[in-house]
């Protein structure tokens, strides 16, 4: 029979092994686009537009189909390190955290291991050039990487940009911390009931409720399972095309 001390040691070893298993990185590859100042990364299939204005900056990436998940991964964060055991084009010991803001489409005219880098089932990041050059040497072009999804750290609160017209509201939800991506959302006007929203494309969520001229409350649940109710985050005098920042932020 184990003594209390040996049992404690065994449990500690098991805990350490479990922790190590939990942080094992996945393997993929990475290229870069957008120029040295990352201006070519603005816009993108997540709908974030100007990445500086929406809080994402220069350290972003377009995801291959295997990671993009038809847009549900928009806003997620990944820590990426060049696999120096497999490539001489790595910056030793360097890593970078990027936000998913775009989609890297497959190119079936090229083989997956020679130009069709984003073809399924490859896990590939087409990173902004500044982010890529943090971990890779320019001449390499494409590098093998180890990556993990990590928590997103954002400055300030979650933001809501309202687009559309009258009975069609398209709401872009940005600057989301914690798990980074939105799993579900609802909206309630000051004179209407709570109405569930559906994801239209990227990080844009839609509602067909007639909520113009009302103060708006949003309920948002992230892919990490955290829900925040942003009470009256949008005042009643809002106009289409305007962004409203909250004082609340997700942590997981």
Strand and helix layout:
Layout: H1 4-22, E1 26-33, E2 60-63, H2 65-68, E3 77-82, E4 95-103, E5 124-128, H3 129-135, E6 143-150, E7 159-165, E8 168-174, E9 182-189, E10 194-201, E11 204-207, E12 216-222, E13 227-234, E14 242-245
Parallel strand pairs: 1-5, 2-4
Antiparallel strand pairs: 1-6, 2-5, 3-4, 3-6, 7-8, 7-14, 8-11, 9-10, 9-12, 10-11, 12-13
Structural summary, described in words:
- With 252 residues, the chain is mostly beta strands.
- It has two domains: 26-150, Barwin-like endoglucanases; 158-246, Expansin, cellulose-binding-like domain (Immunoglobulin-like, Sandwich).
- It is 12% helix and 37% strand.
- The protein has three helices and 14 strands.
- A hairpin with a 2-residue loop joins strand 10 and strand 11.
- The longest helix is centred in the N-terminal third of the chain and has 19 residues, at 4-22.
- Residues 1-25 form the signal peptide.
- Belongs to the expansin family. Expansin A subfamily.
């Amino acid at each position: 029979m184990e003594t209390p001390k040996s049992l404690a040691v065994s449990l500690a070893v098991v805990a350490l092994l479990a922790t190590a298993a939990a942080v094992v990185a996945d393997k993929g590859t990475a290229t870069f686009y957008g120029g040295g100042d990352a201006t070519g990364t603005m816009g993108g299939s997540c709908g974030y537009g100007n990445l500086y204005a929406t809080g994402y900056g220069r350290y972003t990436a377009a995801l291959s189909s295997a990671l993009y998940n038809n847009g549900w991964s928009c806003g997620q964060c990944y820590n990426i390190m060049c696999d120096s055991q497999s490539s001489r084009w790595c910056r030793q010991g360097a890593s970078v955290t990027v936000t998913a803001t775009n989609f890297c489409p497959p190119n079936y005219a090229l083989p997956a291991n020679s130009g069709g880098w984003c073809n399924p089932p490859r896990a590939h990041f087409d990173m902004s050039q500044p982010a890529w050059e943090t971990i890779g040497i320019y001449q390499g072009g494409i590098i093998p990487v180890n990556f993990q999804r990590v928590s997103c750290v954002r400055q300030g609160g979650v933001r809501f940009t309202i687009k559309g017209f009258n009975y069609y509201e398209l709401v872009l939800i940005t600057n989301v911390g914690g798990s980074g991506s939105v799993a579900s959302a609802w909206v309630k006007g000051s004179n209407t009931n709570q109405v569930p929203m559906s994801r239209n494309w990227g990080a844009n969520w839609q509602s067909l409720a007639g909520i113009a001229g009302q103060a708006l409350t949003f309920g948002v649940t992230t892919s990490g399972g955290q829900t925040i109710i942003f009470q009256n985050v949008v005042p009643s005098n809002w106009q289409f095309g305007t962004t409203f920042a909250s004082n609340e932020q997700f942590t997981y």
